[in-house]
């Protein structure tokens, strides 16, 4: 069994996944648009944004991140709360680089610093509204 995060974006899934691929070393495996889906059942309202992403998948290291844009009117966007995506860089330098990339255009909620459990730990909500935890346990 595997476990991975599935994020819902407010019309920015494609931009977010391309940003993560470029700056976090991820590889986009799948990027399906709403307009590429089969037609809805007869009488159902059409999707309001056919160019949005209905399913995206990428690998980052040995993990998988999945996501989509909210699909109005079926799945409205709700801001992510009470959850963070955790990254575990292998070095202080990588933790600092990744934290800076995610903080660019976002909001730092806890600066990246030494804690009693990690050589670097910090939290940030990126420009796409995704909360991240950076936890580096290695010197």
UniProtKB/TrEMBL annotation:
It comes from the Bacteria. Residues 3-134 form the Glyoxalase/fosfomycin resistance/dioxygenase domain. Pfam families: Glyoxalase (PF00903). InterPro entries: Glyas_Bleomycin-R_OHBP_Dase, Glyas_Fos-R_dOase_dom, PhnB-like. This is VOC family protein. It comes from Tahibacter harae.
